[in-house]
Amino acid sequence: MVQTIGNPLSWGLRQLQGAGRDIGDVTRRLGGAGAVPAVRVLSYADLGVALRRGLQDFGALRTDVIAAAMLYPVAGACLVWAAWHGALLPLIFPIAAGFALVGPAAAVGFYEMSRRREAGQPAGWLDGIRVLASPAFGVIFAGAMMLAAVFVTWLLVAYAIFQATMGPEVPSSAVAFLREILTTPAGWAMIAIGIPAGAVFAAVVLAGTVVSFPLLLDRDVGLPVAILTSLRVARAAPGPVAAWGAIVAACLAAGSLPLLLGLAVALPVLGHATWHLYRLAVPAD
């Protein structure tokens, strides 16, 4: 077959048309695209089912998911190192705790792997990365930026609480900082204010994201519809959803030790389990 050189102008126009369609689809999904799906009331037993199925996915894809998830402890360690060496020692704990705020978006690759395995398709870490080419990635990225903004806001609030209670001097070492937190009225005040403040951030993110990112990946719906669906799931079953948030927090806390390496296991298991919780909370069309 004779190979010819295509018209550069025609090729450029085709690329622009494709980009225009992609931008138009993202814009549409950032709006109220799609009907709000029906939800069912989650039970405490559903949490066990979701965790069990998440562990099964992790067991079946163990090598792939650990390889993919190693990025998270490395990124977390870099953030902690930057805080340690940048006179931001008071932010080390807020950074570690803040993983729960961005986790729903960070686990999107694991949702895709579980989705493919559930459908009987091959699933591996490359499939988790290929979600970047998914038609849903644009709106998922927008949702991830929203969570990143919440994370930054939490860090600013946490630092303001430190300044108001123990500041403005930064402790000379982690040992001295920990001693001041546990043995001084200023440290007790920071704990008394900081923990409820962090709980508010976590509760808001949990209610708005418990099923929203899996829903965006699975169906052609807009970001507002996905968030509204999550809020409906949380309102229908506040106890089980709160218990799910506690499970996530406990797993991430355990995964932060030692040196955040446990996140390579905790995040994949929670990601797979969240996909199955979504399946239990939002019935299929």
From TrEMBL:
<feature type="transmembrane region" description="Helical">
    <location>
        <begin position="90"/>
        <end position="111"/>
    </location>
</feature>
<keyword id="KW-0472">Membrane</keyword>
<feature type="transmembrane region" description="Helical">
    <location>
        <begin position="241"/>
        <end position="270"/>
    </location>
</feature>
<protein>
    <submittedName>
        <fullName>DUF2189 domain-containing protein</fullName>
    </submittedName>
</protein>
<dbReference type="InterPro" id="IPR018692">
    <property type="entry name" value="DUF2189"/>
</dbReference>
<keyword id="KW-1133">Transmembrane helix</keyword>
<feature type="transmembrane region" description="Helical">
    <location>
        <begin position="188"/>
        <end position="217"/>
    </location>
</feature>
<feature type="transmembrane region" description="Helical">
    <location>
        <begin position="65"/>
        <end position="84"/>
    </location>
</feature>
<feature type="transmembrane region" description="Helical">
    <location>
        <begin position="132"/>
        <end position="162"/>
    </location>
</feature>
<keyword id="KW-0812">Transmembrane</keyword>
<dbReference type="Pfam" id="PF09955">
    <property type="entry name" value="DUF2189"/>
</dbReference>
